[in-house]
Specification:
Blueprint (H helix, E strand, L loop, with lengths): L13 H22 L7 H19 L4 H13 L2 H20 L1 H12 L5 H16 L2 H19 L3 H18 L4 H10 L3 H28 L7 H14 L8 H11 L4 H19 L1 H8 L6 H15 L8 H7 L8 H19 L2 H10 L5 H19 L2 H18 L4 H15 L7 H10 L3 H4 L4 H16 L8 H9 L2
Helix pairs in contact: 1-2, 1-18, 2-17, 3-17, 4-13, 4-15, 5-7, 5-11, 6-7, 6-8, 6-10, 7-8, 7-22, 8-10, 9-20, 9-21, 10-21, 10-24, 12-13, 13-15, 14-15, 17-22, 18-19, 19-20, 19-21, 19-24, 20-21, 21-24
Length: 494
C-alpha cells in the first residue's frame, strides 16, 4: 500500500504570491532589454522556466509536493493542447497555400483593388465580417489575415499597423458571433443567456470599434497618398512571373470558411484547408512544386506528393528574384510553429504551478479587497482577467477563473450576470492577443509574422474596449440590475 502524505498544505501569503510574479516581470523586462523583438523566440521561455522554478520552490516551502505541482502543470498544458494542434495545422496550411498560389492570388487581387487611403479600415471591416460569420479569430487570422499582411507588404504599408487592424477586426467579429467558443463560454460561466450576453456587449463593442475605425482612417489619410507605387508594381510583376494566378485559387479559402460555418472543429477544418491547398498546388503550380522538391529520381506523381508533404512540415521555399516576394512566400510549415509552441508550454508551466499552489487565487483575493462599488468591481474584474492572461497564458482561464471568483460578488451587489459575462469578454478575450506568451498572442505573432509588442499599440479595439467597460462601470451607463420579479417567478415555477 502507498503511504499517504501527512503534510498539511499551507495557504500562500501575499508575499509568496508576489515573489514569482515580480521575478517574472524582472526577467521579462531584462529579456526585452537584451534581445528586443527576438525576446519571444527563446529568452522569454527561459524567463518563464526559471519563474516556474521560483514558484515551485515557494510551493515546496508551503508543503506542496513536486508530484502535485507536476500534475497542476500537466492539467494546465492539457487545456491548451487543442490550441497547439491548431498552430501546427496553421503552419501546414500556410505552407501549402503559399505553394499553391492561394496567398499570392489574394495579394495580387488585393493590390489591384485596395487603395492605401482606405486600406487600414478596410482590413478591420473584412476581418470583422469573416470572423463574425465563422466565429473564430484564429481561423480568420490564419487565412484572410495572412493575405492581408501580404497585401500590406506589397503596398509598402506598415505591417505592425496592418496586424493591429487584423487583430482588431477579427476579435470584434469573434466577440459578437454566437458561433464563437469564448462568446459561449463567458455567459456559461457567469450564468447569463447567450443572446442577452451578445446584446449587452454592444454597449462596449460598438463605441470601441467606431473609435478604432476612426483612428485607422485618420492614419490611412495621413499616410503616403498612393503607397509605394513602384514596390506595388514590382510585387505584381513578380507574382505574375513566378505564380499562376486565378480566382480558382481562392477555393481553399472557401473550403475553410464553409467548414467553419458548418461548425466543424478548427483543427480538422484548417488541416483540410491545408490539404486543399496542396491539391491546388499540384494542379496550378506543378513547376513550382517540382523545383521545390528537386528530386530527379522520383516520378512526377511522387514528386507532387512529396512537394505537398514537404510544404506541410517545412513550409515552402523558392527564389523569385524579387526580395519582397521571397519574404512573403518563403514561409509556413509545422516546424515554423515550434518556437511558438515552446513559448506556450513554458508559460503554461508557470501558470500551472501558480494555480496549483494557490498563489494565483491569493492574488485575486487581494484585488477583491479594493472593490467598493460597481465601477471598481468591473475594473477589478478586468485587471484580474488581464493578470490571468499574463500569468496563466490562456484566454479560457482568464474567463473561467475570474468568472468563478467574482460571480457571487456580482450577485451580492444585485448586478445581472450579463454585466459579468460582458466584462469577462472585454478583458479576458480581448487582452489575450496582447500578451506575447499567451496562446493567442503567440499565435497571432507566429501566423502574421509580426511580433506581439509590434502590433500591440495598433490593436486599438482590444485596447479601447476594456477602457470603455471601466467608463460604463463608473458612470452606471448600461449597467443592468437583477430583475427581482423575474427571479421570483422563476423560483415559484420550480
Amino acid at each position: 500500500m502507498k503511504k499517504t502524505s501527512t503534510k498539511t498544505k499551507r495557504a500562500p501569503s501575499y508575499v509568496d504570491a508576489l515573489i514569482p510574479m515580480l521575478f517574472l516581470v524582472g526577467m521579462l523586462s531584462l529579456a526585452v532589454y537584451l534581445f528586443g523583438e527576438d525576446a519571444s523566440w527563446g529568452p522569454n521561455q527561459i524567463a518563464l522556466t526559471f519563474s516556474s522554478l521560483i514558484a515551485a520552490l515557494i510551493g515546496l516551502k508551503n508543503k506542496h509536493s513536486w508530484e502535485d505541482m507536476g500534475k497542476g502543470v500537466v492539467n494546465s498544458i492539457s487545456q491548451a493542447m487543442g490550441a497547439i494542434f491548431i498552430l501546427l495545422a496553421v503552419g501546414a496550411l500556410i505552407g501549402t497555400w503559399v505553394m499553391s498560389g492561394t496567398v499570392t492570388t489574394m495579394i495580387y487581387y488585393g493590390l489591384e483593388i485596395l487603395s492605401p487611403k482606405i486600406f487600414y479600415p478596410t482590413v478591420v471591416i473584412v476581418s470583422a465580417i469573416v470572423a463574425g460569420s465563422i466565429g473564430s479569430s484564429w481561423t480568420t487570422v490564419g487565412t484572410i489575415g495572412v493575405g492581408l499582411i501580404g497585401i500590406a507588404h506589397g503596398m509598402d504599408m506598415s505591417l505592425s499597423i496592418t496586424a493591429g487592424a487584423i487583430v482588431s477586426g477579427s476579435y470584434f467579429g469573434d466577440k459578437l458571433s454566437p458561433l464563437s467558443d469564448t462568446t459561449n463560454l463567458a455567459p456559461a460561466v457567469a450564468g447569463s443567456n447567450l443572446y442577452d450576453h451578445i446584446k449587452h456587449m454592444l454597449w462596449t463593442t460598438i463605441p470601441s470599434i467606431t473609435i478604432s475605425l476612426i483612428i485607422f482612417t485618420i492614419i490611412g489619410l495621413y499616410a503616403s497618398s498612393d503607397g509605394n507605387l513602384s514596390m506595388k508594381e514590382e510585387t505584381l510583376n513578380a507574382i505574375e512571373a513566378s505564380f499562376n494566378t486565378s480566382l480558382w485559387l481562392l477555393v481553399p479559402v472557401l473550403v475553410v470558411l464553409v467548414l467553419a460555418i458548418m461548425k466543424m472543429k478548427p483543427f480538422p477544418t484548417i488541416l483540410l484547408g491545408a490539404l486543399a491547398g496542396g491539391i491546388f498546388a499540384v494542379i496550378f503550380q506543378p513547376e513550382q512544386v517540382m523545383q521545390f522538391v528537386d528530386r530527379t529520381d522520383l516520378s512526377k506523381p511522387m514528386v507532387m506528393i512529396a512537394g505537398v508533404w514537404k510544404a506541410m512540415y517545412t513550409g515552402f521555399a523558392t527564389s523569385t528574384g524579387t526580395e519582397s516576394i521571397d519574404q512573403l512566400v518563403n514561409r509556413g510549415g509545422m516546424n515554423s510553429m515550434l518556437e511558438v509552441i515552446w513559448l506556450i508550454l513554458s508559460a503554461l508551466m508557470f501558470g500551472g504551478v501558480m494555480e496549483e499552489t494557490g498563489m494565483l487565487k491569493k492574488l485575486v483575493q487581494a484585488l477583491l479587497k479594493m472593490v467598493h462599488g460597481t465601477g471598481s468591481l468591473i475594473a477589478t474584474t478586468i485587471f484580474t482577467s488581464l493578470g490571468t492572461n499574463i500569468i496563466a497564458s490562456d484566454q479560457y482561464m482568464s474567463i473561467v477563473l475570474p468568472g468563478r471568483m467574482f460571480k457571487m460578488e456580482y450577485e451580492r451587489r444585485g448586478l445581472a450576470p450579463e454585466n459579468l459575462s460582458r466584462t469577462l469578454e472585454d478583458s479576458g478575450t480581448l487582452t489575450s492577443p496582447l500578451v506575447p506568451w499567451n496562446t493567442c498572442g503567440a499565435y497571432m505573432a507566429g501566423t502574421l509574422g509580426v511580433a506581439t509588442f509590434a502590433y500591440l499599440p495598433f490593436a486599438f479595439f482590444n485596447l479601447i474596449s476594456p477602457l470603455v467597460a471601466i467608463f460604463l462601470g463608473f458612470t452606471g451607463i448600461s449597467i443592468k440590475k437583477i430583475d427581482k420579479s423575474k427571479t421570483a417567478n422563476d423560483e415559484s415555477s420550480k
